[in-house]
Design a protein that fits this description.
This protein is an alpha+beta fold and 297 residues long. It is elongated. Helix 2 packs across helix 3, helix 4 runs parallel beside helix 5 and helix 5 runs parallel beside helix 6. The strands form three sheets. An eight-stranded mixed beta sheet has the order 3-12-9-8-4-5-7-13, sandwiched between helices. Strands 6-11-10 form a three-stranded antiparallel beta sheet, covered by helices on one side. It has a two-stranded antiparallel ribbon with strand order 1-2. It contains seven helices and 13 strands. Strand 10 and strand 11 form a beta hairpin.
């Protein structure tokens, strides 16, 4: 297997078959190339990617073997296949822990030219970890989106959280637990914002990041990637001791990275497509109605 690009003697780079296939695969996953649509001609792809025709042919052969496109014939260009084979779905067999599935799927989402991520979560700690690989790849010039738009929904600072909260309620313990969560929410949000804004400052990528707050503690986590994929999970709640400001407090807390995520792909059939579409509608509905703008400090 070759890398996506190879360094030339002049210090530039040229696309390999793997690189062209990865670019087209990302466009299919993001819905830019829709089911049933014709692929651009080989002549167009040659000019667009600046490669030889053999490179384009090898890339198209990869996508055909993966079941992503039909076989092209003279006078009948290849088309986007009607479905993605189950074998190509990373989480088709069973759900995986958040830490195991979120990072590779976010990295794949960043291969698109226009990256869009919507998330509902308790803090952005897990998403920050998942962004490490794609942000590093962009700074290393392995791939480069034109734009990145991220929208985050987090609990409002003024609500009484369902979790984390003390098992035995008291004003002092309530304040300790709430202030610890609020500090984590704001700190992780600032890290997310700063890391993404660095893409604009250093790499010139168009970046837009927005935070809004929910008047409730969401019992679920949801990540929507490029409008083509939904990763859904439940927050599992546990009872444990936590040291906060030199005070031991028994709390009900969530297991963020240890929660399971279920993957749904718009391209994987009617059921998955309906879930992705409905999840996006649900997120947009929250964003445009009961949420409030959040300012990080």
């Amino acid at each position: 297997m070759t890398s996506e690009s190879e360094v030339t003697e002049g210090g530039g780079s040229r696309r390999t078959p793997d690189g062209v296939a990865a670019s087209l695969r990302a466009r299919i996953s993001a819905g830019e190339l829709k089911v049933g649509a014709k692929l651009p001609t080989q002549a167009w792809l040659v000019e667009h990617y600046g490669v030889e025709r053999t490179v384009v042919r090898q890339a198209l052969q990869q996508l055909h073997e993966e079941g992503l496109i039909t076989e092209g014939r003279k006078g009948a260009p290849a088309k986007i296949a009607s479905s993605v084979p189950a074998a190509s779905r990373p989480s088709d067999e069973e759900p995986k822990l958040t830490a195991a599935v979120l990072s590779p799927r976010v990295a794949e989402a960043f291969r698109a030219r226009e990256v869009r991520i919507d998330a509902v979560c308790l803090t952005t700690e897990t998403l920050n970890l998942a962004l490490g690989e794609p942000l590093g790849a962009i700074h290393a010039r392995r791939f480069r989106p034109d734009s990145v738009h991220v929208r985050i929904l987090l609990p409002d600072r003024g609500i009484n959280l369902a979790f984390p909260r003390p098992v035995h309620r008291s004003a002092a313990d309530d304040r300790l637990v709430h202030e610890r969560w609020l500090s984590q929410r704001n700190t992780q949000g600032l890290v997310l914002r700063d890391n993404l804004e660095a893409l604009h400052i250093i790499e010139g990528v168009e970046v837009r990041i927005e935070f809004q707050t929910l008047p409730l503690t969401s019992p679920i986590k949801l990540y929507l990637l490029n409008g083509s994929e939904a990763l859904f999970g439940y927050y599992d709640i546990t009872r444990r001791e936590q040291e906060i400001a030199d005070t031991s407090v028994e709390i009900f807390d969530s297991l963020g990275n240890q929660s399971m995520l279920f993957q749904y792909l718009r391209s994987a059939g009617a059921r998955d497509a309906a879930f992705v579409e409905r999840s996006q509608q649900w997120f947009d509905g929250l964003w445009n109605t009961i949420t409030s703008q959040m300012r990080l400090s």
